[in-house]
């Protein structure tokens, strides 16, 4: 995929267009919809999710702040055709995190359509081509079969296990050289 960047929003967050998605900066009106997405059955099985509107608000504010502090972060993922908020995807690297993580959360009723892979591929390309990262990771539980499959499609391979925030996770990784070789 060749990254298509749109105009940045008022906070400087670039918009990324993929064939089916718009990756854009977060807005206040995303909060209740995002809470509905992450509150669906099974969404918190592998990644802690907010369970209240205040929690969703805090997570949204964190995402906005991450962009301001790092110059990259998680986008709100929107369906290009309908404008429906589908979840989030992008880059995450909080203090003390084991590396720059590419991550995704897509609403459950849209799983199996390749949307996480599409959003994740755009985030990986953005990380290597725009941000200039040399390595990326993705962190997940061993039972998160869907996300493990997405990571594999993006070229990430299991690298190690690590305890983070009191739980054991598998770390998948890809470096720039491997990504560029696969890209052709």
UniProtKB/TrEMBL annotation:
Record's keyword annotation contains ATP-binding: no
Keywords attached to this entry: Transferase
Domain N-acetyltransferase: 20-157
The UniProt record lists the keyword Secreted: no
Gene3D superfamilies linked: 3.40.630.30
Gene Ontology MF term list: acyltransferase activity, transferring groups other than amino-acyl groups
Protein name, UniProt field: Acetyltransferase
């Amino acid at each position: 995929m060749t990254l298509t960047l749109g105009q940045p929003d008022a906070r400087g967050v670039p918009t990324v267009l993929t064939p089916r998605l718009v990756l854009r900066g977060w807005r206040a009106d995303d909060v209740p919809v995002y809470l509905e997405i992450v509150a669906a059955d099974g969404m918190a099985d592998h990644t802690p999710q907010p369970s209240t509107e205040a929690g969703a608000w805090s997570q949204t504010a964190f995402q906005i702040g991450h962009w301001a502090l790092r110059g990259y972060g998680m986008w709100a993922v929107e369906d290009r055709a309908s404008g429906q908020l589908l979840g989030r995807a992008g880059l995450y690297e909080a203090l003390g995190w084991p590396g720059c993580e590419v991550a995704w959360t897509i609403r459950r009723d849209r799983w199996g359509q390749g949307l996480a892979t599409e959003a994740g591929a755009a985030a990986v390309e953005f990380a290597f081509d725009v941000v200039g990262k040399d390595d990326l990771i993705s962190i997940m539980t061993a039972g998160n079969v869907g996300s493990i499959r997405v990571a594999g499609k993006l070229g990430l391979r299991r690298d190690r296990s690590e305890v983070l925030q009191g739980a054991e996770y598998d770390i998948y990784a890809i470096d720039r050289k491997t990504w560029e070789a696969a890209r052709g």
